[in-house]
Amino acid sequence: MRKVFVIELIIIAAIFYLDYRHVRLGSKVPYLFLIGWVSLRMRGLRWKDVGLFRPASPWTKILIVGLVAGIGTEVLELFVTQPLLTKIFNRGPNLHELQLLVGNRKLLIIGIVLSWVLAALGEELVYRGYLTNRVAEIFGASKSAWIIAAILVTLLFGFSHFHQGPTGITENIIDGGILAAIYFATGRNLWAPIIAHGLTDTIDVVLIYLGWYPGLQQILGLPA
Asked: pTM for this one?
């Protein structure tokens, strides 16, 4: 299976390289999801085997964990990490692609849907579900293997947002670390990080739509 993993890595690297070279593939997530699905099926596994299963604890607990973590992450990002990183790098995250979202109701709806389907569900299945489990498996699935996998995938998650610049990359590394911690804290269940991820992205989309996102003029290059 190590040979198969090498092939997976080559394909994943190619997807990231093409995206970096601005070869328009759309979002990387659908392609990574397909690779993950094929990889799981080849090993006789399903998405439930990497976290998309009914939790042992009550759903209300998972919901509360997701909501609290999502709101907490958003507060940390907007009022602590982003202002600090903006000072360090002398610029905020590059969100110019979202400029058309300001005041646009149709794009608001699309943005919220994508926040849950593509970002929350898609990215959590790919990064926390498929990649973290796959890397840990390759390293022997020991405690140290899971730690290594979490670190490597969290870094990859951050750098996958390279188009947002150094502030955006670092923010996403921090957010990815929090999502990984939630994943492990809930018994490697994906539902809590999915909820947290979807909530933070939804809040961002709504704030940008309303024009209330901190430092919006500077981040989007809009007139003050």
From this structure: 0.94
